[in-house]
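Following up on my earlier message about 6-O-phosphono-beta-D-fructofuranose. Here are the inputs again, as you asked, copied directly from the submission form:
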Amino acid sequence: MKRIGMLTSGGDCQALNAAMRGVVKSITNAEKDVEIYGFLEGYKGLIYGNFTMLTGKDFAGILTKGGTILGSSRTPFKLIREPDENGLDKVEAMKQNYYKLKLDCLVILGGNGTHKTANLLREEGLNVVTLPKTIDNDLWGTDMTFGFQSAVDIATEAIDRIHTTADSHGRVFIVEVMGHKVGWLTLNAGMASGADIILIPEIPYDIDKIIDKIHERTARGSKFTILAVAEGAISKKDAKLSKKEYKEKMKNYHYPSVSYEIADLIREKSDYDVRVTVPGHTQRGGSPCPYDRVFASRLGSEAGKLILEGEYGFMVGIKNREIIKVPLEEVAGKLKSVSADATIVKEAKMLGISFGD
Ligand code: F6P
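Thanks, got it. Here's what our run produced:
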């Protein structure tokens, strides 16, 4: 008999269900005597013992379904050691529920914050296997996270659609792509859709360089310019501020997001007609793309194999197209960001894409 606890934590993304289905199918195909405890709304479910019993049937027909059948929530790692409003020790509560239900292991699907907590639970002696989800693709130890390709498709389509209207009206368009800390999504969607300027958190921009690029395009006869801007894009000036100074600046920040500030600066310094489009959470919504369905299923299958073999303390990931297992302590707390000297950035620059640097 295997007793498996499962939860999805943090911002959702496509293929969470496909990944869970992969885990459950691979285990139940090999072993009939399995109990699955689905903790609801992420770590909250494990903390407060809020779970539902699931069978193989619950995972049928969900390969293509977006979101997560278990629900999700953010449980910030920095607060995990702090008691809740009723004085409950959250880590102790998670351990107690694990032991009370006599679980053999926890299957945890999540991104960066989720992995810090998963590693903490491992350090506390629980058996944990994790799967890498996030549209940001910023998890250390894996070339790819599921959700990323689906989000690239959506953001690309959003920018594709802007091209025609930008052309008709001769406008400068800023499309804001998700990603506060890293620019993988913006970089890939920007390149896929032929954006002229790509701004990502890892490469601070200079507004004058952005305007130079627009002028250059106008001088060449282009009627419009498209900017793919990450939520976390930052100016060179702001990047030089200390954490405290930046926090101070943000207190009086009156723009909904950085794209609106950039739009205003372009307007102030030129005569261009500028518009901002924010696809927002549509990038995380809907059905996973075929790549993510296959990838998440492969990860699920390998996670199932680890569980059947009683190998715990790993995240399953992908390296050079092979599914691998990475020790959780190597993954937790590290961010995989875009390097300013990455080959892909150099290649993009050779194509004439400006990073505003
Ligand atoms: O981490 C995934 C992500 O979608 C980021 O790209 C985005 O900045 C953030 O989550 C949005 O978070 P929330 O759904 O809590 O608004």
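One observation from looking it over: The longest strand covers residues 2-8. Hope that helps, and feel free to reply on this thread.
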